[in-house]
Amino acid sequence: MATLFAKAKKEAPSQGTTAKTSKLLVPVLLGDKLRDLQDKRNQIEKLQSDCTMLEGEIKPVARTEWLKIMKQQGRKPDSFVIQSNGANMLVIVQDKFLSMTPTKERAFRDNKLDSFIDEKTVYSFNPVLLDKYEAEISEALKKLKIPEEEKDKLIKADVVKAVKKGALELLPSLKDKAELAFNLFEPVIQLKNQE
Predict the structure, then answer these.
(1) Better-predicted residue by pLDDT, 136 or 70
(2) What 3-state DSSP class applies to 95?
(3) Neighbours of 66 (CB within 10 A)
(4) What residues does each domain of the chain span?
(5) Which pairing describes strands 187-194 and 155-163: parallel, antiparallel, or unpaired?
(6) How far is 85 from 186, CA to CA, in rounded Å?
(7) pLDDT band at 26 (very low <50, low <70, confident <90, very high)
């Protein structure tokens, strides 16, 4: 009788490697359309790079203005429009944050902002030991015949830390630490054209 793991393995899609072969060159009659498409894609790539550089200059200003509005209103501001030389841009500060690094976590803790850290532990099986003991595990987890020293290694845990959702709502209550916390949070800022 096949184990549950063997059944799952049998039904799993194959991820085999495919041999690399040289690409077959096929001449077609499309006039300049291929060249035009290549040129347009190159232009898009260049424009995207330019946009990224401009956003890198605009987003810090948007962050500063967001903090000013938050301090004036005493609450998390909604989206707002920034304006310069007749051009408008909608600024949306999202309740999404860049990854939590160990350095950032230390800064949170050093500044007594650790209540904003959301910690989740994700458990997974050690695949080497799971494969080694699949029959025993399939029969019944309670009756595992695994050496004690390997039982401790069977399940792996990954701890994922992030800024808690809703953290921006609580910024005004931090008063003097609001700007520091905002900079540590590194919220995702979205810029949209505004006519």
Answers:
(1) 70
(2) strand
(3) 23
(4) 38-118+165-194
(5) unpaired
(6) 28
(7) confident
